[in-house]
Specification:
Blueprint (H helix, E strand, L loop, with lengths): L7 E11 L7 E10 L2 E7 L13 E4 L3 E5 L1 E3 L20 H12 L4 H17 L2 E8 L8 H9 L4 E8 L18 H15 L8 E7 L7 H14 L3 E5 L3 H11 L3 H7 L7 E5 L5 H10 L2 E4 L1 H6 L7 H7 L3 E3 L12 H17 L4 E2 L5 E2 L1 H4 L6 H15 L16 E5 L13 H7 L7 E4 L2 E5 L2 E2 L4 H16 L1
Parallel strand pairs: 1-4, 1-5, 6-7, 7-8, 8-9, 10-11, 11-12, 12-13
Antiparallel strand pairs: 1-2, 2-3, 5-16, 14-15, 16-17, 17-18, 18-19
Helix pairs in contact: 2-3, 2-15, 4-5, 7-8, 11-13, 13-14
Length: 478
């Protein structure tokens, strides 16, 4: 299956376009013109330039649709879609969950990685996601990050491929089995090879490669330091896990004598070229250092709930100036990869988290309880901003995340006439999108290419992909 890059595409008469520009404007009865990989212009629908309708390659009638920027996923482990809902790991916290699944992941093959990448990307595209990161950190049986990169090339998503790694096994005090760790010299050499061979730092780039040692409990301090030096010498970014749950924090304190934020800073892992996944247990001092250095956070609310890791202090991070985006995390710790649903969960979880905190004393001496303060903790507009502009900032991109002339032609169209939005979209399309049950995208456009059309993938045979993926999942777990 193939979908050409259109020279000019017109999204015509959208009921609403949520631009996510600096004012978060929502434009009504507006048309958006795409030229090649970029947005060319936005026009009032009744004020198109003469002859434009006849001079485009395709017109999409958007009268009953909300248009948003393409959503941005800042953290994923796509191979984990093969081990969703494995019974033995369903009721475990992070460390127990990992110890249960490591032996299964040790059976991964290159074919499994390629197919799970395609399935994960298909799922993301159907949820309106146009840019994704993926963190592959184990390489058994000949698996290489190249397998992920090659699979992604056939899909057409904008992709940040993170060369993860584990180098400290159980015998050296780490969490993973020794059979899944690599030599550090090989990790660094392969990371350099991948960046030099594949990383494209240009505007509208479809592929960037990231240095990404896995976590404090699976790599050495030397590897963290040397990875940071390598990445910066090659002009790419850095990614890892940090402060995910209480055990993670306790490990850092016991092994290194530092909080996770102190550990990261001592190793050169704070800066505007770094983002950390989770940060559920980031303390006030850590938030301040992240804000001062522009260090980003991938917030993964569903995974944090699924593994009972806690509620990340997202509002405190945002108010301090920390860049925050959303991540679906691995599909075995979320069991879904629906980025719009992740945004909805971020909104709801933030409100619940605020409601659980102590009341505030007002200047007049009265108390305001958490249930009074919770709704302001995260609005629908805030949640959509996390999923778009926030993610773009975390990934270090100024060409995605909002809709304006010159920005990448990455966008999603949402049907406002669905059952789930009845009685909602007539009042507020953006509020309906985030508060009602999360729909699939009607259209998803990446770099000017229509990759989801009328709710169906244009680049893949969905049924055939699912059948192949399920066969491999049975083989892996069986």
């Amino acid at each position: 299956m193939s979908e050409p890059t259109l020279r000019r595409l017109l999204i015509h008469r959208a009921r609403a376009i949520a631009t996510l520009d600096d004012e978060r404007r929502v434009l009504h009865d507006t048309s958006l013109l795409v030229h090649g990989p970029a947005v060319e212009a936005l026009y009032p629908a009744d004020a198109l330039p003469p002859g434009l309708l006849e001079d485009v390659d395709e017109v999409i009638d958007a009268r009953d649709h909300l248009v948003t920027p393409g959503l941005v996923n800042t953290h994923h482990h796509m191979f984990q879609s093969l081990t969703r809902a494995v019974p033995a790991a369903q009721d475990a916290e992070l460390f127990g969950w990992l110890r249960t699944l490591y032996p299964l992941w040790g059976r991964l093959t290159p074919e499994m990685v390629r197919v799970s990448t395609q399935l994960a990307m298909a799922e993301l595209l159907l949820s309106g996601c146009t840019t994704t990161s993926d963190h592959l950190y184990l390489y058994p049986n000949g698996v290489r990050l190249d397998d992920t990169i090659e699979a992604a090339a056939g899909i057409g998503m904008r992709f940040h491929a993170a060369r993860g790694s584990m180098s400290v096994g159980e015998s050296a005090g780490g969490l993973p089995p020794d059979t899944l760790v690599e030599r550090e010299a090989h990790i660094l050499a392969d990371t350099q090879r991948l960046i030099e061979a594949h990383d494209d730092p240009g505007r509208y780039s479809l592929l960037r490669v990231v240095a990404a040692p896995c976590s404090p409990f699976s790599v050495s301090q030397d590897l963290m330091r040397e990875s940071a030096v390598l990445a910066r010498s090659l002009g790419t970014r850095l990614h890892t896990h940090l402060a995910e749950n209480a055990h993670d924090v306790a490990y850092s304190q016991a092994r290194f004598g530092k909080t996770p934020a102190q550990y990261a800073e001592d190793l050169g892992w704070l800066g505007d070229d770094v983002w950390h996944a989770h940060c559920v247990q980031l303390d006030g001092a850590g938030i301040a250092r992240f804000a001062a250095t522009g260090t980003g956070v991938a917030h993964c609310p569903c995974s944090n709930m699924r593994l009972a890791s806690g509620i990340a202090p997202v509002r405190r991070m945002l108010d301090a100036g920390v860049p925050v985006g959303l991540g679906v995390d691995g599909s075995a710790s979320n069991d879904g990869a629906h980025l719009l649903a992740e945004a909805r969960m971020a909104l709801l979880l933030a409100r619940v988290g605020r409601a659980m905190e102590p009341p505030e004393v007002q200047p007049d001496g009265t108390l305001r309880h958490g249930c009074d303060l919770g709704p302001a903790e995260m609005t629908a507009s805030d949640a959509l901003a996390l999923a778009t502009r926030g993610g773009a900032r975390v990934l270090g991109r100024d060409d995605i995340g909002h809709l304006a002339p010159g920005m990448a032609a990455d966008l999603a169209l949402w049907d406002l006439q669905s059952l789930s939005m009845a009685g909602a979209a007539v009042h507020d399309p953006v509020g309906a999108l985030l508060l009602c049950a999360s729909p699939q995208a009607a259209y998803t456009v990446v770099n000017g290419r229509v990759l989801v059309r009328e709710g169906r993938l244009t680049m893949l045979d969905e049924r055939g992909l699912v059948e192949r993926h399920n066969r491999l999942a049975r083989e892996l777990v069986g």
